[in-house]
Specification:
The chain is an alpha/beta fold. The chain contains ten helices and eight strands. It is globular and about 55 Å long.
């Protein structure tokens, strides 16, 4: 049984598709780009927004920063709560918490939005540590977020072989698995999020689960 579990937020604890994609759509429209198909914007779920605007729409870094500000014009008042917690997730977290497992959130989303979402779904109380990015764009990579979460949990100085045995990073994208590997954590991929076909396998996930129920069993088996 793992003693520590770090969770990604978007696509892992909750399904944020509507809020994120509509807010990206809003920002693109301000740049004169019409994207009526929200499904094409799903790759924005997970990685840092700046990287996605640059990669998928060829923005310069300067324009990507402007696009993020436009995105937040809609996301902060509306999109943040256009979100759904995955069925069974709250009960699973309550069970892990009851077993005295140390729980943390390690998300690339700005910390203030992470707190708002966790509070809205009444699951914030289960997490000992909550780490996101900063609004100014700092601590924007998954590796930086994982590092800060491990620091706050007191695990950063532990040997990697010990961390892999006691600590898991759970997420739905390759970035989560990559962050786990950098710090010697057990990387657990969830297929019910937004990974592309074969993405989690290619990233080297130690385990892949298909449901919240399977995840709960894996995290608590001895």
């Amino acid at each position: 049984m793992f003693q520590y579990c770090l969770f990604d937020l978007d696509g892992t604890l909750t399904d944020p598709k509507e809020g994120i994609t509509k807010s990206v759509q809003y920002a693109l429209k301000k740049f004169g780009i019409e994207e009526p198909d929200l499904g094409r914007l799903e790759p924005f779920i997970g990685p840092p927004l700046k990287d996605s605007f640059i990669e998928f729409y060829g923005f310069t870094e300067e324009d990507a920063i402007k696009a993020i500000a436009l995105y937040r014009e809609r996301f902060a008042p509306i999109g943040v709560l256009e979100n759904q917690i995955f069925p069974g997730m709250a009960q699973m977290l309550e069970n892990l918490y009851g077993k005295k497992i140390h729980l943390a959130v390690a998300s690339s989303k700005p910390t203030e939005f992470v707190h708002q979402i966790l509070s809205h779904f009444e699951i914030e109380k289960y997490f000992e540590v909550i780490v996101g990015s900063e609004m100014d764009g700092s601590r924007g990579t998954k590796e930086e977020v994982v590092e800060e979460a491990l620091l706050q949990l007191g695990l950063l100085s532990c040997p990697q072989e010990d961390r892999k045995r006691v600590c898991a990073m759970i997420g739905d994208r390759k970035f989560d698995i990559q962050g786990a590997k950098v710090y010697g954590l057990t990387g657990i991929g969830v297929s019910f999020g937004y990974a592309g076909e074969g993405e989690l396998e290619a990233a080297g996930a130690d385990h892949i689960v298909n449901t919240v129920e399977e995840l709960g069993v894996l995290l608590t088996q001895e």
